[in-house]
Design brief:
The protein has 82 residues and is mainly α. The protein is built from 4 helices and no strands. It has a domain of 52 residues.
Length: 82
């Protein structure tokens, strides 16, 4: 179940692309339908790339401890791409 939870977007996108691919072939693969299928594939690929987190500013637990103990307000955000 963890596999499905971690990969739910990829699984749903694969199902949508599979259905669209079958329909494209079933109805006759014209250039327009192939272009629409490619556009759908690109559209489904972009969101996971957009929401990935950037590089961390702090790379170790000691650096986090120093930042918290510095006396300045510190924002600690915990996020995982998985």
């Amino acid at each position: 179940m963890a596999f499905v939870n971690h990969n739910s977007y990829a699984i749903a996108a694969a199902i949508v692309l599979a259905v669209a691919g079958v329909e494209t072939v079933r109805r006759g693969a014209t250039w327009r339908r192939i272009a629409l299928f490619a556009g759908l594939a690109a559209l489904l690929t972009l969101p996971p790339l957009y929401v990935r987190s950037g590089a961390s500013v702090v790379f170790s637990a000691d650096a986090v401890d120093r930042a918290i103990a510095s006396g300045r307000p510190t924002l600690l955000e915990v996020y995982s791409d998985f």
